[in-house]
Amino acid sequence: MLKKKNLLLTLFLIFLVSACGGGGDDGGGGSTTPPDDQAGGSGGGSGGGTGGGTGGGTDTDTPPTFISAVNKYYLSVGEKQQLSLSGASAISNTLEWSGNGAAYLDNHKISNPVFKADAAGVFLLNVEVNYASAEGKLARTEIVRTEILVRESPVSQEITDIEAARFLQQSTFGPNRDEIQRVKDKGYEAWIDEQIAMSMAGQTLTEFADQGIDNQRYKRDEKWRWEVWGVQSIFSPNQLRHRMAFALSEILTISFVADLHLYQNPVALFSYYDLLLNSSFTSYRELLELVTLHPVMGHFLTYKGNRSSQDHRPDENYAREIMQLFTIGLFELNLDGTLKLDAAGKAIPSYTQQKITEFSKIFTGIDGDSLTEPMGFDDTKHDQGTKTLLRDSQTQIDLIVPAGQTTQQDLAMALNNLVNHTNTAPFISTLLIKRLVTSNPSPQYVERVSTRFVQTNGNLAEVAKAILLDPEARYGQESPSFGKLREPLIKATHMIRAFNGLNNQLFRIDEARALYYKFGQAPFYSPTVFNFFMPDYTQGGLRKENLTGPEFQILNTSQLVTNENLIYDVLANHRLNAQKIRFPPLNRDEIVDIYRQRNIEGLIEHINIYFTSGIMSQHMKETILKLEQKMKEQNEAEWPLVMNIMYFVLQSPEFSIQR
Fold this sequence. Notes:
The chain is of the alpha+beta class. A hairpin with a 5-residue loop joins strand 8 (121-132) and strand 9 (138-151). The protein is 42% helix and 10% strand. Helix 4 runs antiparallel to helix 18 (460-469) and helix 7 crosses helix 20 (488-498). Among the domains are: 10-151, Immunoglobulin-like (Sandwich); 304-422, no CATH class; 488-658, no CATH class.
C-alpha cells in the first residue's frame, strides 16, 4: 500500500511551529436562517456511491477531473460494496472490470461494479482513462487508483494493546492500563455492551456530589460541583456514557456565559448534564423531548413561558435552533450526509422562515417554576390554531398539526416530524462521528451509521456501537485525512488517565472559568449555542484539501503557550499556576519503573501505546533517543529525565491529533 503522511498531523505541526491563530480564519460562522438563493453551508463533497455531478469542458483532449471524495473503502470480510468514481466530464462513461482486478474506463460508458470482500488484504482498483484528441488519436492516459482495505471483522479479531488504546481514545476520556486489558479480554462489542448495561447508581453529577465526600464540601458550596464533573469524567467506570454525554452536550448546547441567571444556578446546569448522562443510550426522540422540557434549555433559548400568538408573537429562538442545530441542519441531505442539489446544482434549504414561525407556535404554553424539574404545559397560553410543519417523509406533503390540540399533543407531533425527517439521521450521525472519531468521515461511513440510526429509530446505544465498530473507525488511520485534533479538555483527561492518576479526591476545580482560561474550554462555558467550534470549520491547508477541522477554531497562539505551561506544571507539581485548579497526582513511579526496567526502548513502546496509540513516527522515536542521551550526559535523575521526555511528547502533534 502507498504510505501517505497524515495530513491533520502535518497541518498541526505547521500550526505549532508558526503559532498562527485558529480563530480568525473564515469558516464556522453559520447563518441562523437558511438563505433562499445560496448553497452555503459545509457541503459534503461528491463521494463514492453518490455520483459526482456533471459539467466541465468538452475538449476531448482533456481527461476528466475526478472529484470523488473517497479514494479508500474499508470493508470486512464477506461485505459487499458498490464502488463508484465520479468525474467532471461531459461524456457519460462506463467502468468495467478486467480479469486481473483492474478496471478500465473508456470514453463512452460508466457503471458501478460491486466488490465483494472474500479475503483480507489491500486491493487496488486501477481506473485507466483514455482520451482521444480532436483527430481521433490517443492523446493521453490517466490512471486513477482506489484502495480497498479489507480486514477481518473488528469484533472477532485478536486485539493488540495499540488497537485497544485507539478504540479507547474514541470511546472514553482516554485509555489506561486496566481499560486496555478489559477491551482485549472482552473484545470491542462486548466491552460496549457492558458499558451500556452498567448501572448509573450514584454516578450522575448530582448524585455523586450529594454523597458528601470530604467533609460535606460538595453540599456546602455548589462551586465544588465543577470538581465533580472532572472526577466523574476521568475516574467513572461508565466511560462510554460520560463520553457520549460530553459529545451530546456539544450538540444540544447550553451555556451560562453572558447569562447571569444560569451562572448563579450551577445546580441547574448539572441537572441538565445529568439528563444527558441518563439519556446517552436512549432514543434520540426521547432525549430531544427531555431537552425541550428542561428549564435550562427553556431559559437559555428563551421559549420558557412562551405565549400564544393570538396576543403575543412567540419567541422564535428555539424553533430555529432545534431545526438548525438539533435535528435537520440547514440543507437537505442524502443518507450519506452529502448535499442534495437542485437542477441548478445548488444546495436545497431544509426549512424556511415560515417554518420557523410555525414551529414557534408549537413551543408556546411550556413553563415552570423550577430550574431542575421538567417544565409543564399550560394550554391556556398555547397557540390553538393549525400549524404547518415540515414535509412528512412518508406522504411527501407538509405535516398539518390540527387546531385545538393540547400543548403536549402538538409537541409530540412536532418532535416526531423533526426526528423522522430524512435529514436527522445523517445530520446527527455526522456530528457524533466528528465528536468521537474523525473530523472527515467518508460518505460510506456516514451512510452506515445513518442507516443504523433509521433502523433503530434513533437508538443512541446502537448508533454509538455503529460509530465505534465501523471498519473506518477501527482501521481509518490508514487514510491521510483520518483523525481529529483533540479538544483541550480531552487532552487533559487523556493525560491523567494514561498516567493512571491517583487519588481522585485531590482533583479540584473551584470554578469553570479557571478551566476556561487555561484550556479555552470548560463545561457549559461555550460562548454561544453553536458550541466552542462549528462542525464545518476549516482553515488553511485543510480548506485546500476540502477537509474540516472543527477543533482548530479554538486553537490559537495564546492557548498553545498556555498548554505548554499547563503540561509542565502538571508534570512537575501536580497543579497549575491557577490556584483554583489542582490535578490528581500522576503515578510517576509506574512510568519511572518502566524506564528503569525496560530502558528507553521500553519507555518509547509504552508511550506509543498509551499516549500516541501507535502513530509515533520514527522521527519522534529518534528525537526521544537523542533527548535521553543529552540528559544522561547532564547526569539528570530518572524522574526529571522521564518528565522531560513526557513534556516533549505531550505537546507534540502526535499526541494532539487523535488517530
